[in-house]
Queue: 2 jobs
Job 1
Amino acid sequence: MDEWIDYYDSTHTIYVSKLHRDVHFQVIARDIIAYVSSPDAIVLDYACGEALSAGQVADACAKLYLAEPAPGVRGRLIARFAPNARIRIRSLDEVRQMAEGSVDLVVMNSVAQYMTAEELDAAFAVIRRLLKPCGRFVLGDVLQPEVGMARDVIALLRFGARHGFLRDALLGLISTALSDYRQLRTRIGLQRYREEEMLKKLTAAGFKASRAPRNIGHNPWRMTFVAHHPHP
């Protein structure tokens, strides 16, 4: 995961335009809010990235922890959300020190593909410990092995057409093909899971889980899972 952390801590070109970036985070925030069960909820966004629309999520809950491994991104989060008393920024090391059973909702979105299987198991163990007995863990944007890059391209173009950045999306696909992201993705690869594989992995981590009807974000060919502690 370290090389991906370094990439996202750099000046990267993962978004084709400012509008793409802004709308992306707005959609993610909207989808996370749908899982917030109460205005009193404590929410953790695990490996949150830039989280530009986190203020919207914070408005829907009592406290929002933004956990981010990249130090540069974390610094920007601190600067951006310092005035918001509901938002706290944490490193992943600090998350591991949080109290057991202290979080109502944990979201890990578009992260699993950048982690080794062992790193993901370790993250699941931390999340299970932090989750309250009736809490939920939402694992979003999981890649499937049989779904290739062509579907990602189609999803981006549809997203661009819907939100007014189709031209930028077309141009962005060309630049992405030549970018560091593409080279890193080719060299390291991304982790992919079949539905039954991820359900088995979550079960082994001590969760009871099911696949959600729709994915978080704009790509309908990726998967979201909802997990919780098994109840007697």
Job 2
Amino acid sequence: MSTPLLEVTGLQTAYGSSQVLFGIDLTIAAGEVATLLGRNGMGKTTTLRSITGLTRARAGSIRFRGTAIESLAADRIARMGVALVPEGRQIFPNLSVRENLVAFAANRNGTQAPWTLDRVFEFFPRLAERASNMGNQLSGGEQQMLAIGRALMTNPHLLILDEATEGLAPLVREEIWRCLSALKGSGQTILVIDKYVERLIQIADHHTIIERGRVAWHGSSAALDADHDLWHRYLGV
């Protein structure tokens, strides 16, 4: 078997004396789309922060492309090809759309067909229309497109989205789902947090439900779709 792109084993993470994660396991192969599901406060974002080096793991291992990264700084992990679209987008408000994108340009996966400014503008035509607008002049949906485009400009091996469609209007959410489906079709590996299970089932290969810092369930989209009791028990829908 080939080495997983990401392999998280026994991950434990705490904020000071408050432990949040109690042994999370997660494996993602290259080209897969995976999700982290669960109610608010269950440890999903902390898992992402541990993977990306923003919060240091207390115990367990995180291997990316076969290399242990649990002790590495966030900038080093990013340069290895992990790109995070954070909750709240966190774009630069005083930079233009074009500047936000160009500032992050890199070919971290060494592809012969990298994401470029023109390619991002083709993927998100609304960003092309607003290329000269400042970040704080964009709508919430446009900011999310910019945050995704910014991450793609690094040409990551792994694209991570925290609350991919939080606070977006229905039509804009559909645009983001279209984006993620297209990225999956191109072979991009994705890890995503979002609450719209019905749409995630259509896109993702497998799902991990987290409950109070532990893995409560893991399985395929078909298995999750067939067991709506899981939704009510762990997701509150």
